[in-house]
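SAMPLE LOG
Freezer: B-3
Tube label: C17
Construct: single chain, 103 aa
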Amino acid sequence: MTEERSYKVAAHELCADILSQAHLARFLSARNCAEASRKALRVVNAINLIFPNEKMSLRDGLADPTAQTHFAESPYSLLHDAGSVEDRFLGFARVLEVLGAAK
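STRUCTURE (predicted):
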């Protein structure tokens, strides 16, 4: 039981750091979309809530620099922008759909 909780706590701490407003804002202001995409994949690989095939779809979708640019803003918008949670979530889901990773 402790072992299962430990990896979940570690994944939570990683997500809280990488997905923090300050962290994401740094990538966006530097227009470092490739690094933002790498960090997102690091978060995805740290948790077991996403089916492995979907992880591969996201990775493959983010191989394209244009897709990286569109994707880089989506976690920030989802987590930190104003507006309804539903609208922010639907925007994030649309980006994932374009990447072929919307399941």
